[in-house]
Amino acid sequence: MKYALSNFIKGLPILLAFLSFHTSSAQFVPQNEVEEQAAKLVQAYQVEVGMTVEQASAVYEKIVVVIAEENAIRNSTTTEEQKKKSLMEISKEETEYMGTILDSKQFKEYKKMKKTLQPLY
Asked: Dihedral (C-alpha) 27, 32, 38, 41: value to the nearest 10 degrees?
C-alpha cells in the first residue's frame, strides 16, 4: 500500500502536466472506456519508465488506437487463431513504435512492464 501510494504521488505531477498539456492544445477529457484505459496505462508506464510529457502524450495517442483495435479484433467473428495472430501483430507494432519515442533505458523498462500491463489474452 505504501509503495502504491508513493508511486501514485510520484506520478501525480506528471499526470497533471500530461492533462494540462492536452487541455492546452485540445480539450482532454476521457470520452469513453478506451481513453480511460489508455490514461491509466500511461500513468503506470510514466511512473516506472520516466517519460517526458511529450513522450507520455505520444504513448497515450498510440495506446488509444491499440486498445480500440484490440477490442475490435476480440469482438470480431474471425477464428480464434486469426484473432491471436492479429493481436500479436498489433502488439508488435505498438512495441516497435515505442522504440522510436523512448530512449533505450526507457524502452527496456517499457518492454518489461508491458508483459504485465498489456497481456495479449
From this structure: 110
Q: Tell me the pTM.
A: 0.72
Angle between helices 2-25 and 53-74 (to 10 degrees): 100
Q: In whole angstroms, how large is the CA radius of gyration of the chain?
A: 15
Retrieve residue 96's grid coordinates. Answer: 516497435
**Sole residue written with cell 472506456:** 33
Task: Tell me phi and psi for residue 30, to 5 degrees.
Answer: -50, 125
Residue 121, classed as helix, strand or coil, is coil
Q: Where are the alpha helices (DSSP H) in 1-121?
A: 2-25, 33-49, 53-74, 80-101, 104-117
Count of positions (residues) in the chain = 121
Model confidence pLDDT, tens digit, residues 77-90: 999 999 999 999 99
Say how far apart CA 29 and CA 31 lie, in whole Å: 6
User: If you ran DSSP here, which 8-state letter would residue 28 be given?
Assistant: -
| pLDDT tens track for 11-25 | 545 544 444 444 333
